[in-house]
Specification:
3 helices, single chain, mainly alpha
Length: 86
């Protein structure tokens, strides 16, 4: 039996899309979703690199979708009758 090593995709530090995505990922640890949305708008108006803006905005959209999914699941659980769960 042989083992095969699958190469991991390399993310270049020079790629502006992933630089924007990474910055949004790091900002999400200290900022709220509302703050991140404001930052996306500011980057869209003032940042010179479109790919950086797209990467940042993509990560913020991922966070918004995750937040919406979690909220929907928690709302469903909150409105479930405990007698129906048996």
């Amino acid at each position: 039996m042989t083992t095969m090593t699958i190469p991991q995709p390399s993310i270049s530090e020079d790629d502006p899309y992933y630089a924007g995505w990474t910055d949004a990922y790091e900002d999400a640890t200290t900022l709220t979703l509302d703050h991140l949305k404001v930052r996306v708008a500011l980057h869209a108006d003032y940042h010179p690199d479109t790919l950086y803006i797209l990467g940042y905005a993509d990560r913020v959209l991922e966070l918004r979708f995750a937040h919406a999914a979690i909220t929907a699941a928690e709302t469903e659980l909150a409105h479930t009758d405990p007698a129906d769960a048996r």
